[in-house]
Amino acid sequence: MKPGRNGTAEAGNDLGLETRREVDRFNARMRHFQAVAASVMEEANALWSELWDDLQDPRTVEEILDGVPVSEGAFPAGGWPEFKEKLRLLGHYLDYTLRLCDGSLLKDLPEEKEVK
Q: What residue ranges do the domains of the chain occupy?
């Protein structure tokens, strides 16, 4: 350690710089985490909206009030196989986001190497 201007060691400076780097690295990770989670949840929300639209009653208000029955193939609009695939994909988005948020997704990744 070199002596500083007032005779004290400059180790505090190095420690402060290293701490700042760690804080910056942590903040960058958090911004990335937030962006990934927001992106996946945005996709999940859009898919949920599609599913909801597929399940809406195709009859008019008058038909509903008159008691007109819904045709058997009316729900969902794109057909059951497509609806089931969308539902499976929604489950995948939710599962991924849950594992991302609870940290279990990171347990399966290889050890991160520090880049200097």
A: 38-107
